[in-house]
Amino acid sequence: MDKILNSRPVVAMNDAVVQFLYTQENPTIRSAVEKLEQLTGLKREKAFYLAVVLLTTVVVLFSLGQQIHLFLGLTYPAMSSLRAVRSLRKSKINIGSKSTEDVCKWIVYWCIFATFSTIEVSSGIGEMRGIFQLYWIAKVIFLVLLYAPGANGAMILYEMAIEPALARIDTSSPGSKKAN
């Protein structure tokens, strides 16, 4: 590593960065560099390199957003669904049992995920993802809130919106006993 850091191109680049940061004539850039140094408590060049690393990390995460979304949105819930099904098969089927609640939670999650994905693809939102840089992060947060044990978002969404909508659909559909 020292060999790379002490190589001629790296040293020349570092010298150029240091010269740029310490002999800046543009007052706006000079002021920003001084504020960055004060805020971080680091020498200007270290603060600059830290900013470059953070910016690079954000760019990489955005480019990996779809993969992160698929892992967090599909892999963990799929495994949890399989565990819930396994648990249900080992236990007696009983309304209100823990395994029944788990299966319901994950079935609701998959239904919400499928509906959301269908709307996303059919409406063209999926094609505009590049425009909205925070799209994947927002979607991951939404999906995690749906299945997170403390949040239990899928069941909350089900009780607040999906169940009432299904009840209205059931009562107004032509084959329904309650339809007039």
Q: Summary?
A:
With about 180 residues, the chain is mainly alpha-helical. It contains 8 helices and no strands.
Main attributes?
180 residues; membrane; Receptor expression-enhancing protein; TB2_DP1_HVA22; 0% strand; transmembrane; elongated; transmembrane helix
Question: What does this molecule look like?
Answer:
The structure is a single chain. This protein has 180 residues and is mainly alpha-helical. It is 77% helix and 0% strand. The protein has eight helices and no strands. It has helices at 2-5, 8-22, 27-40, 44-63, 65-90, 98-123, 135-147, 153-172. α5 packs antiparallel against α6 (98-123) and α5 (65-90) packs parallel to α7. The longest helix has 26 residues, at 65-90. The N and C termini lie far apart (78 Å). The mean pLDDT is 77.
Largest sheet at a glance? none
E-strand count: 0
Oligomer: single chain
What ranges have pLDDT less than 50 throughout 5 or more consecutive residues? none
Structural class: mainly alpha
Distance between the termini: 78 Å
Number of helices: 8
What integer value in Å does the Rg equal? 26 Å
Give the mean pLDDT. Answer: 77
